[in-house]
Design the sequence.
């Protein structure tokens, strides 16, 4: 099937090239005039014609046109539009440097913004949000820093897992269903300090794209969303230092040319110093994080460019010298951009990433070590066939080694036997091809296929179970129980234990009703072969990733979405309305009281269920002017269920649908940014959200003087609604103008009206009199994590 | 390795260092009333084990402050040989016998007739190894400053065993059972088969002269899971890291009307105890 498809597409490609062979191409790369950073998403438009191209992730564009004379416009938000007269009689290379629009000629800004808004109307890509370096700078400031993850949770369809919790949820999906890529490397944990900060240092970030649906065939492996983050290449023209000093952490970035216009480097780091304060406060517990982004780029010649990027991040906690915990991502990516001719752009990436967490039990005398090692080879091609047809294709080969846990003695005299849970190994190769086609002036299509596969490899021993059922149903007491293994099977490293192949069709279309209005639709199927084994409402750093295999099937998701897009008032405002329906098969759920920690036989704790989510999203943006911002509203539902495997089994929650922990009926947010004067910019975010589903007791009894609550159906109650207002003010001193040293003060207040949002509601006995036979009256207690939190940051640049 | 899990919860608690608690009003639903059985048959090493107690109650609404005993109930346990031990009600909801005969590995069936419905369960008697010693120390444990009481016992080799350990602090004062501080762990030997196991109770509130009763029980894996579930349900939810709550059904079944299932557990276990006066 897969080979046939490739052959067919190749034929199609060849035939189309023949038809258009009378054309010549104009191609090149588009960079920032000041920094030399390549710019992605620049509109390259043939003036007076409804034709054009968009620069790719590496700033490359190519446009094929019949021989003749043209005026080409290069336009990009925040940059002055460039107009070029060209005569095309042979293939032309045209590298473009766009200058930032410093004069703030409103006219030009408006036209660039308008072009962008217009492009958004036309593009077949829906359910996507893009933030470029320029817009990231203007993104809302939370806790004194621009935080990319907190910014995306202000968009429709995206919610955070909760205050003080890491991860985010997209369109009712779980946090482990997000593919988070930093320079193409998978990041397994996106938060520092349990969600206080995201792992993305805004200084080092060039652009981000968040796909909630209509995910291009290039991406796979996670069913809910793709957060594609690119690091800056480093300034290839000038040496620059950029930093910020805050209350909790500080950051510093250094970038500059190694060889002017050819090679550049970037090093950016952040570190917290909460520990100092904790120590001063006499606190014995410690908490800290750091991260380091590094990148070197080298342009060998017109057709070849190399990049080496690295990311290192670590969080650590210490509990009064008895217990310590560290976790973090380490990754490297070596990339090679190569141009085959003028139309075929390629990128080859070799990626290594490691996510690890360790617990140290100093007193008990042992360490707990766990990690995931991942090698990934990617080869992606962008074929700019002509102004109406673009083809993206590529291969991707992932190899994983999961080391779910290992106990190492640190003291000789303790009674623990050293123990290592089985390493798990897997390969995930995939291939994709996708076409972007302007069928008519009004109709744009994108259609493609990804063929993914997953091979769970041997090199370990597996338990076998009676009837192949690692979880058995005890009908007498209506509970699911772990089965006892009835034997063992051994596999060599070369053995394939289980394999899966998934066909993942993707399709999107956009139809222009008029210049300002379009409708779009998309369908996607995605398979996810890795599962985060987590039975809590929000992920914790201690959760284990498990590959699909004999007893765990891959998750398969289908999503349908339709949308309406309109620009108003000369593109000053834009409106996006989307609805979606999404299903996920083989979503894991857990037996009651599942023991997921240090368990070698996770299959005995897992049941396979399904989930579904649907919703309506509205985003109204003001794109230009002194006041910019957006209003976002989502109405949605997210549910899951586990039915019995046989008619006598009841499943979980009697086999009925129940709310997922990330179900939020209403999610409203308002984000605004106002340029008050030359010196002052003020910003505000307001968020209102339905409370998280939870469970309240509906009765109680006592066993051994301990009160045991009784519950009704799962996740039917809700915490009180969540709402919050953040304010920020940025002061850019006037004296900046005539000097190299540029500074900025950022003042912020998180949760300005000190709303005590419920992180949880728990119940406790009022008095401790446990020996009288009385239960003691119970009361409900609300725990809130963040009160009002001020922040001051001093940022500088030279 | 019970403390392993407690420690993980502790890390998560760091997060809550800046948290704040407020008492709030919440309306709660009330579920169907059910029978609750606490039939924990305990046999101390070196005793006859003939005196046994079973407690019966009914579930009650969550904000009520009273236990509602289940009274007027017929309670019996019968063994494999057909001998039946009858439990009679001494206080409301308290059923006692003085004729029980414990035997390791033997199978016993509990039968309760309550409101014309019969509840049943069959279980096996579990043995326990002897306590090797109980010691006191200060340097060990989690903190080097707080005192702790340690217990050592040697695991049965070759089998997977589960233990439950209690540390009672000043349980008896002037011959009267007083409110006590109790620490309760279940212990799974899967990491340490056949070796000497130890556990400790550490508290800054231990004083010289405190009397500690340490009890180690041999229990079934199912009962171990049950106690773990009960304890998880009873412990405070710690926010987003809480696991979904469950109605913990034990090993009893309503054989008259299945839907009216009871809560509670029938377990038979041997235990060994040692006393230590903290010096």
Sequence:
């Amino acid at each position: 099937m897969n080979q046939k498809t490739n052959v067919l597409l190749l034929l199609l490609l060849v035939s189309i090239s023949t038809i258009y062979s009378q054309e010549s191409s104009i191609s090149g790369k588009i960079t920032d005039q000041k920094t030399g950073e390549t710019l992605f998403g620049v509109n390259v438009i043939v003036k007076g014609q409804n034709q054009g191209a968009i620069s790719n992730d590496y700033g490359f564009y190519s446009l094929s046109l019949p021989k003749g004379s043209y005026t080409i416009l290069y336009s990009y938000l925040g940059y002055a539009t460039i107009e070029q007269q060209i005569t095309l009689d042979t293939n032309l290379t045209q590298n473009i440097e766009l200058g930032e629009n410093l004069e703030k000629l409103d006219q030009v800004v408006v036209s660039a913004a308008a072009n962008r808004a217009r492009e958004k109307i036309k593009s077949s890509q829906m359910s996507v949000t893009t933030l470029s370096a320029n817009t990231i700078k203007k993104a809302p400031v939370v806790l004194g820093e621009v935080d990319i993850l907190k910014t995306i949770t202000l968009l429709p369809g995206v919610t955070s897992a909760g205050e003080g919790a890491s991860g985010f949820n997209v369109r009712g999906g779980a946090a482990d269903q997000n593919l988070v890529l930093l320079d193409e490397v998978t990041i397994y944990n996106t938060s520092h300090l349990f969600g206080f900060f995201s792992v993305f240092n805004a200084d080092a970030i060039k652009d981000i794209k968040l796909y909630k649906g209509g995910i291009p065939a290039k991406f796979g492996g996670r069913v809910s969303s793709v957060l594609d983050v690119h690091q800056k290449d480093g300034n290839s023209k000038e040496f620059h230092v950029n930093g910020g000093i805050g209350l909790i952490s500080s950051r510093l970035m250094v970038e500059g040319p190694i060889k002017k216009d050819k090679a550049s480097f970037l090093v950016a780091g952040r570190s917290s110093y909460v520990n100092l304060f904790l120590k001063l406060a006499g606190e014995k517990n410690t908490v800290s994080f750091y991260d380091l982004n590094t990148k070197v780029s080298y342009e060998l010649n017109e057709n070849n460019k190399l990049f080496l990027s690295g990311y290192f991040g670590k969080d650590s906690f210490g509990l009064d010298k008895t217990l310590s915990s560290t976790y973090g991502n380490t990754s490297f990516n070596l990339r090679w951009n190569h141009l085959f001719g003028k139309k075929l752009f390629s990128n080859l990436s070799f990626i290594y990433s490691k996510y690890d967490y360790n617990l140290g039990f100093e007193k008990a005398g042992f360490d707990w070590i766990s990690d995931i090692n991942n090698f990934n080879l990617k080869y992606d091609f962008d074929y700019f066939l002509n102004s109406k047809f673009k083809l993206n294709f590529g291969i991707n080969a992932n190899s994983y080694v999961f080391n779910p846990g290992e106990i190492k003695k640190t003291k000789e005299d303790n009674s623990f036997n050293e123990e290592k849970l089985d390493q798990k190994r897997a390969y995930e190769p995939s291939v994709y091809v996708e076409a972007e086609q302007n069928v008519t002036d009004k109709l744009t299509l994108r259609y493609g296929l990804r063929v993914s596969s997953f091979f769970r490899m041997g090199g370990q021993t597996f338990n076998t179970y009676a009837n192949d059922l690692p979880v058995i149903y005890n009908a007498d007491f209506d509970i699911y129980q772990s089965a006892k293994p009835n034997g063992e099977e051994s596999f060599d490293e070369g053995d394939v234990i289980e394999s899966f192949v998934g066909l993942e069709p993707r399709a999107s279309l956009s139809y222009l009703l008029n210049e300002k209005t379009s409708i779009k639709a998309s369908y996607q199927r995605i398979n996810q072969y890795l599962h985060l084994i987590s039975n809590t409402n929000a992920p914790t750093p201690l959760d284990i990733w498990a590959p699909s295999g004999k007893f765990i099937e891959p998750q398969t998701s289908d999503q349908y979405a339709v949308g309406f897009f309109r620009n108003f008032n000369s593109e000053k405002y834009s409106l996006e309305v989307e609805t979606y329906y999404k299903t996920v098969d083989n979503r894991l759920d857990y037996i009651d009281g599942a023991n997921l920690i240090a368990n070698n036989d996770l299959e005995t704790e897992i049941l396979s269920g399904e989930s579904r989510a649907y919703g309506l999203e509205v985003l109204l943006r003001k794109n230009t002017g002194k006041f910019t911002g957006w209003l976002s509203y989502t109405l949605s539902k997210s549910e899951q269920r586990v039915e019995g495997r046989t008619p006598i089994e009841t499943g979980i929650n009697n086999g009925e649908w129940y709310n997922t922990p990330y179900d939020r009926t209403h999610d409203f947010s308002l984000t605004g940014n106002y340029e008050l004067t030359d010196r002052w910019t003020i910003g505000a975010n307001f968020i209102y959200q339905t409370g998280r589903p939870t469970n309240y007791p509906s009765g109680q009894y006592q066993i051994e003087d301990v009160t045991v609550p009784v519950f009704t159906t799962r996740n039917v109650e809700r915490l009180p609604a969540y709402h919050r207002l953040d304010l920020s003010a940025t002061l850019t001193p006037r004296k900046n103008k005539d000097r190299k040293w540029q500074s900025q003060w950022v003042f912020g207040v998180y949760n300005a009206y000190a709303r005590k949002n419920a992180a949880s509601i728990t119940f406790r006995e009022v008095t401790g009199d446990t020996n009288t036979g009385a239960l003691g009256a119970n009361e409900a207690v609300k725990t809130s994590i963040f009160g009002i939190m001020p922040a001051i940051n001093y940022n500088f640049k030279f | 390795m019970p403390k392993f899990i407690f420690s993980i919860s502790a890390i998560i608690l760091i997060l809550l260092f800046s948290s704040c608690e407020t008492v709030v009003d919440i309306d709660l639903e009330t579920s169907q009333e059910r029978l609750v059985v606490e039939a924990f048959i305990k046999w101390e090493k070196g005793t006859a084990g003939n005196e046994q107690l079973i407690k019966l109650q009914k579930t009650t609404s969550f904000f009520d402050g009273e236990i509602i005993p289940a009274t007027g109930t017929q309670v019996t346990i019968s063994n494999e040989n057909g001998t039946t031990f009858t439990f009679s009600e001494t206080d409301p909801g308290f059923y006692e016998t003085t004729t029980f005969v414990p035997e390791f590995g033997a199978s016993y069936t509990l039968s309760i007739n309550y409101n014309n419905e019969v509840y049943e369960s069959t279980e096996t008697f579990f043995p326990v190894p002897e306590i090797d010693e109980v010691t006191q120390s200060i340097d060990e444990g989690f903190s080097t400053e707080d005192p702790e009481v340690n217990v050592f016992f040697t695991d049965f080799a070759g089998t997977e065993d589960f233990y439950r350990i209690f540390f009672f602090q000043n349980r008896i004062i002037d011959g009267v059972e007083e409110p006590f501080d109790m620490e309760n762990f279940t212990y799974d030997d899967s990491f340490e088969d056949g070796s000497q196991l130890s556990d400790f109770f550490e508290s800054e509130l231990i004083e010289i002269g405190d009397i500690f009763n340490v009890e180690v029980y041999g229990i079934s894996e199912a009962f171990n899971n049950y106690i773990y579930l009960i304890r998880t349900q009873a412990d405070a939810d710690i926010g987003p890291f809480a696991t979904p709550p469950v109605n913990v059904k034990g090993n009893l079944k309503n054989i008259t009307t299945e839907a009216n299932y009871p809560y509670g557990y029938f377990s038979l276990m041997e235990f060994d105890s040692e006393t230590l006066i903290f010096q």
